[in-house]
Specification:
CATH class of the largest domain in chain B: Alpha Beta
Largest sheet of chain A: 6 strands, mixed
Shape of chain B: globular
Strand content of chain A: 25-35%
Shape of chain A: elongated
Number of strands of chain B: 15
Structural class of chain A: alpha+beta
Number of helices of chain A: 5
Order of helices and strands of chain B: HEHEEHEHEHEHEEHHEHEEEEEE
Helix content of chain B: 25-40%
Number of domains of chain B: 2
Distance between the termini of chain A: 31 Å
Radius of gyration of chain B: 19 Å
Number of strands of chain A: 11
CATH topology of the largest domain in chain B: Rossmann fold
Oligomer: heterodimer
Largest interface: A-B, 34 and 30 residues
Chain lengths: 153, 296
């Protein structure tokens, strides 16, 4: 559970999981409700909600996990329509595309990126303090929804 | 006689005059993910013109779109899936799915698995299998994108379902089949009667194994996108005579299943199944079966 809570903390989210609902398959973490557990055998490939994986001792969150975190109090930026689409296409976020933010605005911190409907599009690292309106780039894209398409090609 | 003429002649014997048909793009809304969202307005703003598919509650044909329907934020958020209209039918034929234990025996790439999860509102359990490991990636990706939380995926041949030791309330058998010419432009060039017979044999093996794993009075929905009776009515006739299954009436578009094929008389109950000749949809066959007491 530690990789998940440690990652969440980097987004200023305090989250706990019931340990008996979490499953690790090789390096991948899944959240499986009680109903599913009766059907979980050792050789399952995928179960419930995929939360992320460990690779070279680093945790890589899934987009589902980011979506769960986005429903809590967290570092978030809300971006405009055009910026949202560019972000989903893998681009970084320009300061002028940021409509609002909450939580940490400090350079180097992680932040979730949400569209105007407050739907989570992914996350990134703050490149310059978000209060600095003279900055051109605001958030470096780390993971976005477009990954669902890119990973299949 | 060319391969194409051979098959067209067979279709004529079954009562259908061949016509070239183009597949229509269709989507299915994932209701569990769009509560409180004004998806219509968002479709309009993207320039999508949708037409409700009359025989489906959540299916729409794409009449016009300025951008690719598979490259929108709404698609990536799992608000809808791209799924051919006829392929949306089988999952809707089950009675009451919520809270049940369902098997999707040949699940990849997962369109029908996601649809089952949606109809179940993420309750109960779906066990999704596929025999080809490389196809599980696309299946898992689809489940994750559409926020499915009630599914367990196994890399397993549908002919070995009993290894799981689970009795299912309902089983979806969208079995591997020979396909049809609407979705495969080279279909007539590459298909032979031997392929069809080989697929029909595999389908019987899957049916036989699935019947062992469905509870008494449990439902199986069998579907193919093949037009060939060996994979459809003839297999269903065999199932009713050998597997303690009976065919149930369904409300569904299409022509009633054939109870006589190439001069062979089949069980009259085959007329409860449906055969969709290509027109507004691709070619498709669907049949709902129920396990009687006293089966294996």
């Amino acid at each position: 559970m530690k990789p998940l809570t440690d990652f969440a903390r980097q987004l200023s989210v305090s989250i706990t999981f019931q340990p008996d609902l979490l499953f690790v398959k090789k390096n991948r973490y899944f959240l499986a409700k009680k109903d599913l557990q009766n059907f979980l055998q050792r050789d399952f490939y995928y179960a419930g909600t995929y939360l992320g994986k460990i690779k070279k001792e680093k945790f890589f969150p899934s987009l589902s996990f980011l979506s769960i975190l986005s429903r809590k109090k967290a570092n978030k930026i809300i971006v405009g329509k055009k910026t949202a689409w560019l972000f989903v296409c893998g681009r970084d976020v320009f300061r002028k595309g940021v409509k609002s933010f909450c939580g940490s605005h400090k350079q180097g911190d992680y932040t979730l990126v949400l569209n105007e409907y407050e739907e989570c599009l992914g996350f990134g690292r703050i490149l310059r303090n978000l209060t600095d309106k003279s900055a051109r780039l605001a958030v470096k894209n780390i993971l976005d929804l477009g990954d669902y398409l890119r990973r299949e090609t | 006689m060319s391969n194409k003429e051979f098959f067209i002649n067979r279709y004529a014997q079954l009562g259908w005059e061949f016509e070239a048909v183009e597949s229509r793009k269709a989507i299915r809304k994932n209701i569990m993910n769009i509560k409180g969202k004004n998806l219509e307005q968002r479709f309009n703003s993207m320039g999508f013109h949708l037409q409700r598919i009359p025989f489906l509650e959540t299916g729409y044909w794409i009449e016009k779109s300025k951008i690719s329907i598979g490259a929108t934020t709404e698609y990536l958020l799992g608000f809808y899936s791209i799924q051919e209209a006829a392929a949306q039918i089988p999952a809707t034929l089950f009675t009451e799915l919520k809270g049940k234990t369902i098997l999707d025996a040949c699940a990849a790439p997962g369109g029908k698995t996601v649809q089952l999860a949606d109809l179940m509102n993420n309750t109960g359990t779906v066990i999704a299998l596929d025999v080809r490991r490389q196809r599980l990636f696309a299946l898992s990706n689809h489940l994750e994108r559409c926020r499915v939380a009630n599914t367990v995926v196994y890399n397993l041949d549908a002919r070995c379902i009993s290894k799981l030791g689970i009795q299912f309330d309902k089983i979806l058998l969208d079995v591997p089949c020979s396909g049809n010419f609407v979705t495969d432009q080279k279909w007539f060039e590459k298909r032979t009667l031997q392929d069809i017979q080989r697929n029909a044999k595999l389908q019987r093996e899957i049916l036989s194994e699935a019947t062992k794993c469905v509870s008494i009075d449990g439902e199986l929905v069998y579907s193919t996108c093949s037009l060939e009776p060996e994979e459809n009515e003839i297999n269903m006739d065999w199932a009713t005579k050998n597997l303690n299954l009976e065919i149930e009436e369904i409300e569904c578009p299409g022509q009633r299943g054939l109870s006589s094929v190439f001069g062979i008389k089949l069980d009259n109950s085959l007329e409860r199944s449906r055969r969709l000749w290509p027109s507004e949809t691709q070619g498709f066959f669907v049949c709902k079966l129920r396990k009687r007491a006293g089966g294996h």
